[in-house]
């Protein structure tokens, strides 16, 4: 479908719209709490795709995930703008704050984020991937890891730090980091 969109095929855009809106609109509605504003965001994102179909890179993930990131980013931008407006006193109505809920669109976005992190982890050198996994998913301290691996404590800390940096860059390349307008919590 991406190739047909690059060629400007109107049916490809219609198909994209029909497939994307049912997934993207609930996400935007959940984030913004306003269906009309959510429709505007989804429309703007899809209009951007129509205007510049070459921005999507299939090697960085599925089109659906890429579109969800674009919608999430636009929603966050609007929420930030709302907060600035409220802070300046231009609106008496405070923005709605939503607690995480087990709604389908939230679960879909969380699943896509997990897939992005897994994919980014696979891109890391083995020692960095191992250091991140051990540091965050085992109850062992950096000192205990250094003793177990028979390396200096500084080496463990460096592997974790470099691993996090490379992970952040990989997520940015996939559109999940703060560099792409995301919230940086991928």
UniProtKB/TrEMBL annotation:
SUPFAM superfamilies given in the database record: Sigma2 domain of RNA polymerase sigma factors, Sigma3 and sigma4 domains of RNA polymerase sigma factors
Question: In which domain of life is the source organism classified?
Answer: Bacteria
Say yes or no: keyword DNA-binding present.
yes
Q: Where is the RNA polymerase sigma-70 region domain?
A: 16-85, 120-169
Q: Which GO terms describe its molecular function?
A: DNA binding; sigma factor activity
**GO process annotations (BP):** DNA-templated transcription initiation
Annotated keywords? DNA-binding, Sigma factor, Transcription, Transcription regulation
InterPro entries from the xrefs? Answer: RNA_pol_sigma-70-like, RNA_pol_sigma-70_dom, RNA_pol_sigma70_r2, RNA_pol_sigma70_r4, RNA_pol_sigma_r2, RNA_pol_sigma_r3/r4-like, WH-like_DNA-bd_sf
Q: Which PANTHER family match?
A: RNA POLYMERASE ECF-TYPE SIGMA FACTO, RNA POLYMERASE SIGMA FACTOR SIGZ
User: Which family, according to the similarity comment?
Assistant: Belongs to the sigma-70 factor family. ECF subfamily.
Its name, as the record gives it, is Sigma-70 family RNA polymerase sigma factor
């Amino acid at each position: 479908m991406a190739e047909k969109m690059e060629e400007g095929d109107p049916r490809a855009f219609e198909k994209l719209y029909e497939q994307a809106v049912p997934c993207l609109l609930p996400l935007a509605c959940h984030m913004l709490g306003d269906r009309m504003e959510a429709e505007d965001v989804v429309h703007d994102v899809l209009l951007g795709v129509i205007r510049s179909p070459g921005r999507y890179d299939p090697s960085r993930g599925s089109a659906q995930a890429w579109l969800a990131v674009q919608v999430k980013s636009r929603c966050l931008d609007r929420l930030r703008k709302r907060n600035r407006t409220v802070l300046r006193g231009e609106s008496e109505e405070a923005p709605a704050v939503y607690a995480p809920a087990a709604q389908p669109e939230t679960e879909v976005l969380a699943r896509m984020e997990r897939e992005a992190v897994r994919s980014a982890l696979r891109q890391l050198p083995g020692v960095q991937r191992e250091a991140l996994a051990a540091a965050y998913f085992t109850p062992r301290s950096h000192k205990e890891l250094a003793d177990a691996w028979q390396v200096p404590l500084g080496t463990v800390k460096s592997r974790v730090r470099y691993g996090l940096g490379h992970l952040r860059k990989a997520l940015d390349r996939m559109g999940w980091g703060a560099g792409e307008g995301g919230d940086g919590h991928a």
